[in-house]
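Incident log entry.

Two folding requests arrived from the same account within the same minute. Monitoring flagged them as a possible duplicate submission, but the sequences differ. Recording both here for audit purposes.

Request one:
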Amino acid sequence: MEKTKVNPASGKLGILVVGNGAVATTFMTGVLMARKGLTKPIGSMTQYDKVRVGRGKDKKYLKYSELVPIADLNDIEFGCWDVYPQNAYQSAIYAEVLKREDIEPVRNELEQIVPMKAAFDKNFAKRLDGDNVKTCKTRWDMVEQLREDIKSFKASKGCDRVVVLWAASTEIYVPIDEQVHYTLEALEAAMKADDREHIAPSMCYAYAALIEGCPFVMGAPNTTVDIPAMWQLAEKTKMPIAGKDFKTGQTLVKSGFAPIIGTRCLGLDGWFSTNILGNRDGLVLDVPENFRTKEVSKLSTLETILKPEDQPDLYTDYYHKVRINYYPPRNDNKESWDNIDIFGWMGYPMQIKINFLCRDSILAAPVCLDLCLLIDLAARAGRYGTQRFLSFFLKSPMHDYTQGEEAVNHLYRQHTMLKNALREMGGYEADEEID
């Protein structure tokens, strides 16, 4: 098989994070600590997972970095935007995710990560009150200012490449409007006309990133790059995009457990999911318009795994409900409950209860690292547009709904897609079937 041309991961990789809160600072601190040998990047697929290549006597298992040229942790430079002006050290202390003893050894590095003024519209996240915000005449002006930020960061840090990662709060739900979101021309016109209803600030970040030759990852459920106009821009700029919403706690469990029910041909009457969360994300999601964005993302998982059209006896008319409750005492320590009503032989009912006491940012940080390293790899391999092989890390994977395509949410099929893409980029045959 002809080896895919993948440019080497030479020079520095800049990671510009939108948001400097709990997830972002936990991610940054962990990377900085790991490269000093003071912690292990546990949970990171790029650092630990292995992929089988070859068959029979030629079979071997390779770490990602042995298979493809992955950027080294030592070559990463961090920058960020945030509505609050505190540097990454101050923000990490304030977030109360990590113990002070796990932050202090990299205090100097974190203090140098000072957020640039955010492109922000309070109407999209009413609970945030920061004043480190750009003054923008129009959405197009917002794009122009963000482009200057990216250029300035890249030059000042001496980066060869930059990835832009959204790790900020969930915006209010922006329904897809065919008149605005279906063509790049219409999107640009709406930005220039300062259409604040249809153009979310996150779209300005994504547009600026792609125009500046930076891959973009949407880590919240915002519809930002999940619109045909952005797909066209990604094609035009030959840049990869991925989204949406980091798959961390409850949805990770759902995408892994639902296949057990389906594979065993058990029936489903209902799946009730609820969460309590007390960090900034929980605060923002306490507003119904913001929760709606998250709800759409979370609800989509189950319906693509347990499908009534495939098994009408088992999955017709099951009830699926998702709830998130803001509960300040828990801070970043999220707790989720899943109550699953199933039925088996002769229709007899059974129940499954899953109680996951997780740490939101501890689960999200390695996902941030993997998405940044892998989308940088994709760019160097000449891949552009929606990167479906990154669905493994995302709650509501992007797909071309205009052509009737369905997202793959089944965790094990997602893992196969990931491994096959790595095999191809490493010059091996993509030899696992997704059925």
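Request two (distinct sequence, not a duplicate):
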Amino acid sequence: MEFRSPTVAAQQNAKALTYLTKNLSDPEAGRQLVGELFDELGNAVDRYPDWHPILTAPPRRSFEHVSGLSQIKAYAGIDHTIEFVRGFVTCPYTDERADRLVASAGQIAGLYARRLEGPLYANNAHPVVVVAMDVELEADGTIRSRNALSWFAQQTAAAAESAKVAETWWNIRSHLLGAPHGSRSSLFVNQHTGVHMRKILEAMNASGMFGPILESSLDMLSPKKRAAISETLIRTAVDAWDKESASFTFEMRGEMCKASLRDTWDDKTELSVSVEIGAHALYISGFYYPESCKITHVEPTGKREVAEKFI
């Protein structure tokens, strides 16, 4: 389904508003505070992209990968937290924890931290706001393209020294776009920025600076096609099974497939099935129900070139 930013933003903001005000004795005052946070910080989000200053500004070891606020020592004490495009609000229960967080985050270059006057989340909470001051928003609420691309490129290039493989856009786009996201945009970056991020990443990967390209996600294929791949291989494996062997091989469309099957509950109602091609070329797994011939499966992983043979 297409990612529709206005709709997603409205859903995220409604969820954040409810979370931060539903337990208050004066929810209307809380809603006013949250409205001011939307004006200052932008839309509510689920997770920051890896290059966001909220994650990269705090000091850390050069090899350390940080994907969430709880991993950052400077943010110790956060509790009942809502993230926004420009920063976050968190609601610890003691003055001491709130003051410590303001002091800690306030020492980081590029960040600004303060306490709010009124409560959020609970009457006895002491909300703290942390803002990435260098984050400027476009008219659509996303981060200014020039800055987002610069931060992304710097963060990605810095990973080259320790990289073993090059990750494709489809493998790591959630880390680059933040969440929620679509195929090339999110509440952090619009389609213009997302398209250029992908082009930059693909150019870096093609240069060989990260090592050989690792292709695992098949999200570039539609859900219908991914389902067809899994169902085709699971059904073929079941048809080729001798009803005894725990593992066996079969050939299909020029590929040697290694299958593993077992009676999940030893009652012939459900078969656990997995099929692997090569070391990382394609892997699918799921369940087959003999009585109804129904198949359920998890998302397949592997290389697109191999996977498309089974559509």
